[in-house]
């Protein structure tokens, strides 16, 4: 994977982890609040190891109780 893409995935993952911890949610609770996510997927996303699909983004937003736009609002 390109270095630039890897950096973006890592920044996105850190942003997701920050949102989750600010909401005082564990990865398990996010998974329970979503439709199909499991803890391992959330961990991979937060660690920049997973390039997620649009439907996974929507499910992650649901699990966090956030609008998908808020997940994409990072630098």
UniProtKB/TrEMBL annotation:
Domain HTH cro/C1-type as annotated: residue spans: 16-71
Listed transmembrane segments: none
Superkingdom classification of source: Bacteria
Listed InterPro entries: Cro/C1-type_HTH (IPR001387), Lambda_DNA-bd_dom_sf (IPR010982)
SMART domains: HTH_XRE
Coiled-coil zones: none
Protein name stated in the entry: Helix-turn-helix domain-containing protein
Organism: Flavobacterium xylosi
Lineage: Bacteria, Pseudomonadati, Bacteroidota, Flavobacteriia, Flavobacteriales
